[in-house]
Structures are given as structure tokens and as C-alpha cells.
Amino acid sequence: MMKVGNVSNYSISTKVVHGSKCYDPHTGAVSFPIYQSATFRHPALYQTTGYDYSRLQNPTREELENTIANIENGKFGFAFSSGMAAVSTILSLFSPKDHIIVSDDLYGGTYRLFEEIYKKYGLEFSYVNTSRIQDIEEAVKENTKAFFIETPTNPMMKVADLKTISRFAKDRKILLIVDNTFLTPYFQRPLELGADIVVHSGTKYLGGHNDTLAGLVVVNDEELAERIKLIQKSEGAVLSPFDSWLILRGIKTLGVRLEKQQENAMKIAKWLCTHKNVTKVNYVGLPDHEGYEISKSQASGFGAMISFNVKDVQTVEKVLSKVQLVMFAESLGGVESLITYPAVQTHAAIPEEMRNRIGVTDTLLRLSVGIEDADDIIADLEQALE
Ligand SMILES: *Cc1c(COP(=O)(O)O)cnc(C)c1O
């Protein structure tokens, strides 16, 4: 008799490899099948196999949804066609006049979604430095319904104290939403620290190969899950069976990829600190980073994202045109090292005044460290920075 596996007691390195069911219980296939079907045949009136129509549920998407729930240590997972579709679904939980406090240093697309789409439906947003609890407290109003936090933030790598913030939020019945894209459940599990909703751009580390867009959401509360399910099936921004399979395959190697990427990032961050044309390095794993201690208390790793300032704009131009191995491209988290210029790419939607206030200036570069040989990456950056 084949038994459906239950991997919930295993450590995270094992869980990522085996997913939710571990294999296809019908055939024993070790690679979970891609159920490329829009609809499902009913056995008889009022009977269902559990699947009716793929916008509502699809077996491959369900395996991914159960897998992400499993590795985030949550109960209910949801997969969307992109990270932004996932964030948008969460925003649909709120009503006109609801107020949301948001990390001021965050993914530019999230800022654009809030300011250019949801504001006109009457939602109110305040952007604060969420690495300072007193700044969050001061921004709370009577109609504050949620905190939307990135930690570490994109691109300044500021760290928010999730346990303290969640205690504060619970006392006031405020929902804590955490974008866990940068550290992934391999290093940080916000639900265990008191968050209510975890959201991901699965496009980044979970997929890991710069080949698929995806978004994921995980919650513990059943009522919240019902509301998200309703929005997901009504709005329909669901992840396709094939893309669900690609993310499932990506997650299998999440552990080994992140270990290697983090090891590389540490080496590269230390090297950048010594370079004469580099004026500041933001990497959470450096002991003099402001968020180092908090990060150690709530996450098992520092990740592989680095941002750094170079001495002037001319150096930015030189670096971006001279890098060869490290590709000048948007996105992050994949096996290939990528370098971006936040002020004109990922964060262009954020007003210049706000960008300069938080540090996203015209001399800031962001590096997503891949799994290549660290010395090759350093050699490439060295020739580009000279
Ligand atoms: C990329 C990213 C998003 C958006 O995800 P997409 O998959 O590109 O839609 C949201 N949050 C963070 C932190 C990201 O890096």
C-alpha cells in the first residue's frame, strides 16, 4: 500500500526536497505530475473528484500550495501568477478608509500598486522605517488595519523586529503581513514569529532559476484563508500547472542554493568593504550591520542580497557597462548573479525625495549573489570597479 507522505516533522532541508505529498500517490511518480487540464469530469450529479475547474483548484497547484504552507509552517497556501498578484489579493481583503502602515524601503512595484491602484479605492497608506518600533507606534491611527513589512528591506537591507511588532499588532487587532521574499522559509518563518500573512515573490529564490514568475501566500487562520480563497478564485490570477511545477522543482534545491549563495555573499560583502571605490556596504551578515543581532534572533541566515554605494555616478555607469559574468538585469534570487540600479530600475516608481530619504540614491547598486564561484564574481566586480 502506498501511503501519502507526511513530512511535517522533518527539518527544513528535508521538507524542501519532498514537498507535500512527496510523490504522486496514483503512480508513484517521484516528480509530481503536471495536470494540464482546465476542467475535471464529475463522476455523477453532486459528485466531484475534489477538482472541478483549474481556476478553483488544480492538483499541481495544490501540491505547490501545500508545499509552501508546509515549509512556512503554516496551514493554508495559495499560488498566484506573480508576486504582485499575490500582494494585490492581500490588499483586496481591506475596505475603503482602512489604513495600512508599510515599510518605507520596499519593492518599488509594491509601492506603485498601493499608490497608483489601491489608493483610488480609498485605502490609506503610511510609509515608515519599520526597523524602528517607535516609528510604527507613532504612525498607528484608529483605522489602522495592517502592517505590511519587508525584512530585510529592498534594497537597503533594514531589519524589522518581527516578534516585537507582532506583539504590538496583536494587542490592537492589526494584521501583520510579511513579505518574506528575501530570506524565504529556509532562513526565516514569519508565522512562527507571530505574523498573520506571509507573501512571496516566488519568482526569486523559491523558483531560483530566473525562468518563472510566481506569487505565494501562506496563513494559519481558517477564516482568513476562506477570504483569500474567495478572492483567488473570483479574480483568477492563479499560477498555471506548468509554472506550479517549475516552482515545486525550484523549491527542492532551495536549501543548497541558499547555503551557497549566502557563503558567496559573505565573501563578496567583506571584499566590497575593502574596495577603495566602494563607500558603503549593506549586508545583514556583516557584524557591524544595524540589524545583525535582531536578524540572528529571528532568522537562521542572512541571505544573499547586498547593496552598496560607489564613489560617484560615473562609477555606476562604468560598473554596469563593464560587468560580464554578473549580469546587469532586474530581479534577484536566481542561480545567476545579477546587478541592478534601484534608482532607475526596481525603485523608479518611488518619488525622488522619498528615495533619497531612505538611501536609494544615484550611487547605490544592488547585487543578488548567485551560485557561481565567489572568486570569479569578485574578479568580475574588480575589473568593473577599476
Ligand atoms: C520581485 C518582488 C516582488 C514582486 O514579485 P513579482 O513576482 O515580480 O510580481 C514583491 N516583493 C519583493 C520583495 C520582490 O523582490
UniProtKB/TrEMBL annotation:
GO molecular function, one term: carbon-sulfur lyase activity
Pfam family, one: Cys_Met_Meta_PP
N6-(pyridoxal phosphate)lysine: modified positions: 204
Domain of life the protein comes from: Bacteria
Membrane spanning stretches: none
PROSITE patterns: CYS_MET_METAB_PP (PS00868)
Signal sequence coordinates: none
Any GO BP: transsulfuration
Cellular component, GO annotation: cytoplasm
UniProtKB keywords: Pyridoxal phosphate
Record flagged with keyword Calcium: no
Cofactor: pyridoxal 5'-phosphate
Family to which the UniProt record says this protein belongs: Belongs to the trans-sulfuration enzymes family.
Name used for this protein in its record: Cystathionine gamma-synthase
Organism of provenance: Acetivibrio thermocellus AD2
